[in-house]
Fold this protein.
Amino acid sequence: MLEQQPNPIEQTLVQSLSSEQMQLVANWLEAEKLIRIKEGYRHSDLTWSLNWMAYKLRTLAQSQQAIDL
């Protein structure tokens, strides 16, 4: 996988979210993936991207929760 530079807009958005909000967005991404699969759209790039974004958000949310403790 290529190392990408962080997108400043995405960074600003994620920094403005609480850990609970990040969890909600991750849940929404997974629900969206399941909807797409149910509709018959199973393109591997889409499902991989949605899974990866949800994973990243959950990881960030857990890190933020640990810092807040």
Observations:
- The helical segments are 8-16, 19-38, 44-68.
- The mean pLDDT is 87.
- The chain is about 80% helix and 0% strand.
